[in-house]
Design brief:
Blueprint lengths: L3 E5 L3 H10 L3 E7 L3 E6 L18 H4 L3 E8 L5 E4 L6 E6 L1 H16 L6 H9 E6 L23 E6 L2 E6 L2 H7 L10 H17 L11 H6 L6 H8 L5 H5 L6 E7 L5 E8 L9 E2 L3 E2 L4 H20 L9 H5 L6 H16 L1
Parallel strand pairs: 2-6, 6-7, 7-8
Antiparallel strand pairs: 1-9, 2-3, 4-5, 4-11, 8-9, 10-11, 12-13
Length: 349
């Protein structure tokens, strides 16, 4: 599809109000003085379009932090029923890095090992995803991992132009969403050129970069498995799991079951888990595959840039910078990764 249209800034709120008539709208809203978060919107005026990053990624709309998977009962007859959320909704204002993250979650939750998670699949199929361009801050490094210009995964994509937004239709769902904006008009040549120039403008504003190509990282890091860097990083780390909880591509979860007081009915649920928690790799025995904090620190970088990098074909990190900004110990993912790369290159000389 190649349909494009321009929405004036003053028409956006009316458009969002019409979208809300068709189902819930999940979009960035203010949280506190300086933060934004994806949340269900009650008023179009609450939507924030010029944010840098949200506290939590839009992943939470597709893979909630806590989610009921199934309900069961023993009486009057044994019965088990899955809990699937198929209600249509619009996920609005998703940045390119987060679109790339949704693509990685699609692979992990629907295609990896030829298995599909029905709960994720139901929410994913129900979503109409509307992306929007952004500008970076000092934490962003999307250009180093190839997610700076991602459009895949969006049904409609918005790029700021003078006085409004250029909307690019990318799917039938996107075309349907744009039909809710009858005020939209064809873009002028100047508006089209302005939208096309946004990518270069964004790339030029990025100041954080990886010290190696993404394809080089598995081999470079693998030789640093026993590096003292992981001990040094772990000495700073609190093991709180904030980095993984804010990550748009982490998909680990724990499953538990609860019975009601009668013990005749209950539910199975799941919630986010973190490889940075001491109990994460604890198994029967008891044996813990990563008992020490340096083991867990190393695993985080290796998981993103070695193991899944090789399996998926690119780093399982989209350069959003959330983990570095949110880290309570001020540990920068790029800082540690570049230190490991520098070590590997010096050793190779």
């Amino acid at each position: 599809m190649n349909e494009k249209a321009v929405l004036k800034e003053g028409d956006v709120l009316r458009w969002l109000a019409r979208l809300m008539e068709g189902g819930p709208l999940i979009a960035p809203v203010r949280r506190g003085r300086n933060s934004c978060a994806f949340d269900r919107v009650e008023r179009p005026e609450a939507v924030v379009l010029d944010y840098v990053r949200t506290i939590l990624p839009p992943k939470q709309a597709l893979l909630p932090p806590r989610e009921r998977l199934l309900e069961f009962q023993l009486a009057p007859e044994p019965h088990v029923a899955p809990v699937l959320d198929r209600a249509p909704y619009a996920l609005f204002g998703v940045h390119p890095c987060d679109l790339a993250a949704i693509g990685q979650l699609d692979w992990a939750m629907q295609r990896r090992h030829d298995k599909s998670d029905p709960h994720y699949a139901a929410r994913r199929a129900a979503a109409t995803i509307i992306g929007i361009e952004c500008l970076p801050d000092e934490y962003c490094f999307c250009s180093s991992v190839g997610t700076c210009d991602t459009r895949a995964g969006a049904d409609l994509f918005l790029t700021p132009v003078a006085g409004g937004y250029l909307a690019e239709v990318l799917s039938d769902k996107g075309a349907e969403a744009l039909r809710a904006a009858p005020e939209a008009r064809a873009p002028s040549a100047a508006e089209g050129a302005e939208a096309e120039a946004w990518s270069a403008k964004k790339a030029g504003a990025i100041t954080s970069h990886l010290a190696a190509e993404a394809s080089e990282l598995p081999d470079l890091l693998e030789g640093r498995y026993e590096s003292a860097l992981w001990e040094e990083t772990a000495e700073r780390c609190y093991g709180c799991g904030t980095c993984t909880n804010v990550c748009p591509t982490c998909f680990c979860f724990d499953v538990w079951e609860e019975a009601d007081f009668s013990l005749a009915a209950g539910a199975r649920s799941r919630r986010y888990d973190s490889c940075q928690f001491l109990e994460f790799a604890l198994v029967a025995g008891p044996h813990n595959f990563r008992p020490d904090r340096p083991d867990r620190a190393r695993h985080r970088w290796f998981r993103k840039f070695v193991y899944l990098n090789r399996e998926y074909g690119s780093p399982f990190c989209v350069g959003c910078g959330r983990c570095s900004q949110a880290c309570t110990a001020d540990i920068g993912l790029v800082e540690v990764l570049n230190a490991a790369v520098d070590e590997a290159r010096k050793e190779a000389v």
